[in-house]
């Protein structure tokens, strides 16, 4: 992943000015500890000492936006997203790297009117925490009767993705009284959903969106790619909403189901190529390369983990295997025997070679489009 450049202009565009002012103070006071930059993921991880007894955990992911760098910071404080602690971490990162180019936001240090002694940061934070504690929090776990819009999650494995990956597409649609949806469109307002959630965004949706921003790779504004153990957690959360669909909204809701035992085998395609697939009991048609791999059974609209005798990391790698042409089978088989070293690891079959001497070769030209290759979101 190409590193993403960060300046204070990006901070001013993504975070409120009062959070920036307080975050600048926190950074100057040395409240940020354990700052770690993960350049290949464009992430910053740190802890920030705030008003609580324990430091807050901050995880910031940077993404390329149409107007510069977009900032998605998750924090364990009550605010949760793009708070003053996120600002403190990014100011500290800019200070360490010497990358700050734009002026920091101006802080009005004039005495308030009427004159009043300024409260220490700890006391001011404590007073605000009392205000929040006095307000009863209403969980957002159900829809109001008048709310017909729904945030939906369409998952699939597009054929153009090499190696195959599970994509999640965010869709906003209107629920029909007779069932199904209408007026569907891609949902892009993730930042609004986290900071000023509309009525159709539930608490579960906010948790999923935070996971996608931090744990998944953004393929497009409303499209994310799931991988590894984090991808398994996200997929489980998607299924729990009851609003997850396979390939498109015309399919029934995809349901979470128990793990199925399975094993990996290579099978021949009509073209002579070999494809690795997981055979499960009961049978399923799709293996998703996660840690561990998951199955999708469109005949029952069920989805769950695959219980294999192989190590989970090896199973994930095998589930993402591309097709093997006949001329490559011997080489791939030898490589797998040498590298895997596991008695249950599947090996490609050796195709039978038939010599044809009396047939003239015929050239073939195949033309494909991205639409023809597409399958799912």
Please provide a written account of the structure.
With 377 residues, the chain is an alpha+beta fold. It folds into three domains: 99 residues, no CATH class; 106 residues, no CATH class; 80 residues, no CATH class. It has ten helices and 16 strands. The longest helix is centred in the N-terminal third of the chain and has 14 residues.
- How many DSSP E strands? 16
Secondary structure category = alpha+beta
Tell me the count of domains.
Answer: 3
What is the assembly state of the chains in this entry? single chain
Strand content: 25-35%
Provide the helix percentage.
Answer: 25-40%
Radius of gyration equals 26 Å
What sequence of helices (H) and strands (E) makes up the elements?
A: HHEEEEHHEEEHHEEHEEEEEEEHHH
- Unreliable spans are 99-105
C-alpha termini separation: 22 Å
Largest sheet: 6 strands, mixed
Number of helices: 10
Average pLDDT level: 84
Shape label? globular
In short:
The protein is of the alpha+beta class and 377 residues long. It contains 10 helices and 16 strands.
What descriptive keywords fit this protein?
alpha+beta; 377 residues; 10 helices; globular; 27% helix; 26% strand; 3 domains; 6-stranded mixed sheet
């Amino acid at each position: 992943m190409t590193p993403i450049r960060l300046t204070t202009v990006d901070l001013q565009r993504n975070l409120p000015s009062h959070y920036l002012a307080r975050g600048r103070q926190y950074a100057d006071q040395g409240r940020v500890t354990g700052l770690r930059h993960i350049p290949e993921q464009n992430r910053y991880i740190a802890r920030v000492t705030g008003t609580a007894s324990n430091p807050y955990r901050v995880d910031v992911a940077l993404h390329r936006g149409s107007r510069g760098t977009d900032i998605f910071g998750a924090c364990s404080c009550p605010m949760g997203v793009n708070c003053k602690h996120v600002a403190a971490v990014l100011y500290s990162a800019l200070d360490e790297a010497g990358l700050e180019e734009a002026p920091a936001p101006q802080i009005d240090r004039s005495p308030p009117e009427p004159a009043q002694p300024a409260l220490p940061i700890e006391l001011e934070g404590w007073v605000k925490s009392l205000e929040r504690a006095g307000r009863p929090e209403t969980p957002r776990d159900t829809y109001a009767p008048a709310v017909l819009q729904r945030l939906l999650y369409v998952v699939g494995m597009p054929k153009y993705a090499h190696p195959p990956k599970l994509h999640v597409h965010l869709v906003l649609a209107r629920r029909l009284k007779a069932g199904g949806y209408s007026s569907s469109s891609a949902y892009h307002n993730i930042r609004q959903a986290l900071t000023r959630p509309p009525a159709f965004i539930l608490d579960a949706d906010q948790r999923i969106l935070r996971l996608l921003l931090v744990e998944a790779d953004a393929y497009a504004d409303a499209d994310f790619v799931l991988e590894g153990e984090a991808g398994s957690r996200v997929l489980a959360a998607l299924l729990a909403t009851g609003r997850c669909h396979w390939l498109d909204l015309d399919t029934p809701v995809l349901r979470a189901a128990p793990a199925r035992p399975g094993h990996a085998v290579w099978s021949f395609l009509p073209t002579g190529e070999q494809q690795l697939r997981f055979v499960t009991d009961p049978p399923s048609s799709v293996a998703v390369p996660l840690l561990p791999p998951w199955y999708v059974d469109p005949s029952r609209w069920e989805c769950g983990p695959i219980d294999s005798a192989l190590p989970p990391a090896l199973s994930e790698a095998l589930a993402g295997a591309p097709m093997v042409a006949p001329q490559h089978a011997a080489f791939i088989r030898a490589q797998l025997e040498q590298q895997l070293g596991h008695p249950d690891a599947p090996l490609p079959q050796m195709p039978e070679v038939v010599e044809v001497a009396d047939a003239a070769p015929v050239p073939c030209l195949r033309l494909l489009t991205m639409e023809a290759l597409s399958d799912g979101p």
